[in-house]
Amino acid sequence: MNALLEIIHITLLSISKAILNFSFIIVIWIIYILIKKYKKVNIYNFDNSKTTINTLIESILQGIIIGIIGSLIISIIGLPINLTYYIIFLLPLALLLSLINVRYLCFSYAASVMGVLSLIFRGQTILGISLPNININISGLIALVGILHLMEAILIYFVGADDPIPIIAKKDDQIILGHLMQKYWPIPIAMLVITSGGVSGSEVVEMPTWWPLLKDIPEEVSVYFYGLMPFVGALGYSSISFCQEPEKITKKSALRLMVYSILLIIISIFSVDNILMKIVGTILMAGMHEGMILYEQYSERINEPIYTLPNKGVRIMSIIAHGPGDIMGLKVGDIITKINGIEVISISQYRAIMKNNYTFIWMDIIRLSGQIHTMEYKAYPDGISDLRIRLLPEYPKIVYKYEGVQKIGFFHILKNKFKK
User: Fold this and answer.
1) In this predicted structure, what is the pLDDT of residue 308?
2) DSSP states along 209-260
3) Percentage of residues in the chain with pLDDT exceeding 70?
4) Given a cut of 60, is residue 330 above it in pLDDT?
5) Superfamily grouping for domain 310-391
6) Do residues 207 and 3 lie in contact, with contact meaning Cβ atoms separated by under 8 Å?
7) 319 alpha-carbon distance from chain centroid
8) What's the distance, CA 8 to chain centroid?
9) Using CA atoms, how far apart are residues 349 and 352, in angstroms rounded to an integer?
10) Within 10 A of 365 (CB to CB), how many other CB atoms are there?
């Protein structure tokens, strides 16, 4: 138990060094800019209670918490990575791949490319030409990608659906409502690294004989020790859905990502002395990740949108928290068909009805499930004319091309707006 407490203490110290690192400030600044751009897309959601700064603070706190959790997993079960010169190219390679497609910014693709290069270029001589020896700790690289995506999966599961932005698109000449989920987190990590040399006895923490799980020791190193190195990274999540509710799609995405990350960690452990497992892990890092994205896109194409413009009634697009509509129990996607017995045919008629300032309102609504409910609201003695809800417009100002949104995603949405 004392060893566990000591590990937690050392891990927290390393995390604090990462937070105080100037690169952590740089990452926060980049995320701040991305959040500001993300909020510019929010033209239909009128709930501006959460500012850019508030959103940034939430992201920082969530990133620190998940960074501590991930670092403790790395330290306690023992998933070290052998630092080599070529590892510094991981981030630049990810940035280079993002020029092809922004989703390739993920480390799973860059790590996969580096793994392939490491397997090919091993210092051999071909036709008198000496190839470079790209000495990459592939097992440690696979483990690192697995841990990073495990942290991402946890974040997506719990907060991925928070504050989705309504997106209006057109599919088969039909107005449809979707939701854009975009999250960024600065991540301070305490990486477990293998370092050659010695260390004083007072700084050593006794570990069980099974530790570390990933026993990938370089042959050329005779004297070594494991240490924690502060590292700063960033995680991001982006998804657009027209066919599923934000909560449902983020939960499904998180569970798939969790299976993917655990599988990579298991492969990394068994790949230490197995070249075949190294090859499998290198391929799966990018292959499975891309497969999950393509599956979500395919699912969106074959399924029908759930938030369509109704033939009768008006559909709720967004609701202000703690407003009258929220207190009544209205939900995004509900179709309002009647107010106080009067049929609602259009948004203009809905507004005309609400101008009566009723002191008591009852309305019939149809849920996404098809169930019909009657909701009530008392507004004695002044009456009420605004439920603090926003409705899906019949003639929206900005409409995105459905096919374009599915293919290119968030960054292109900022640039490519299509007016009806």
Assistant:
1) 95
2) TT--S-----TT-SSEEEEEEEEEEEEEEEEEESSS-HHHHHHHHHHHHHHH
3) 91
4) yes
5) PDZ domain (2.30.42.10)
6) yes
7) 24
8) 26
9) 5
10) 24
Q: Which two tokens stand for residue 90?
A: 């991981």
Per-residue tokens: 228 = 């924690």
Using CA atoms, how far residue 105 sits from 110, 146, 249, 411, in Å, is 8, 16, 22, 12
Domain ranges of the chain: 2-302, 310-391
Angle between helices 90-97 and 107-120 (to 10 degrees): 110
DSSP structure class, residue 202: G
| Chain Cα centroid distance, residue 377 | 37
Nearest residue to 8 via CA among 52, 58, 74, 54: 74
Q: Quick check: 361 pLDDT over 70?
A: yes
CB neighbour list of residue 286: distance below 8 Å, 6 or more residues apart: 108, 109, 112, 113
For residue 89, the 8-state DSSP code is G
Closest CA to 75 of 151, 147, 2, 154: 147
Please say if the pLDDT value at position 416 is more than 70.
Answer: no
Q: Which two tokens stand for residue 96?
A: 């280079």
pLDDT single digits (tens) 388-411:
999 999 988 777 777 666 554 545
Of the candidates 377, 376, 416, 383, which has an alpha carbon nearest to the alpha carbon of residue 400? 416
Distance CA 226, CA 211 (A): 11
DSSP state of 311: S
Measured in degrees and rounded to the nearest 5, phi and psi for residue 165 equal: -100, 130
* pLDDT one-digit tens code per residue, 161-192: 998 989 898 888 889 999 988 898 999 999 99
pLDDT of residue 277: 95
Residue 363 three-state SS: strand
Segment 348-361 mean pLDDT: 95
Question: Helix H segments across 42-192?
Answer: 52-77, 90-97, 107-120, 138-159
User: C-alpha dihedral over 342, 343, 345, 350, to 10 degrees?
Assistant: 30
Q: How many Å is the Cα radius of gyration of the chain?
A: 26
Query: What's the rounded Cα separation, in Å, for the pair 361 and 341?
Result: 10
> 296 near 238, Cβ under 8 Å?
no
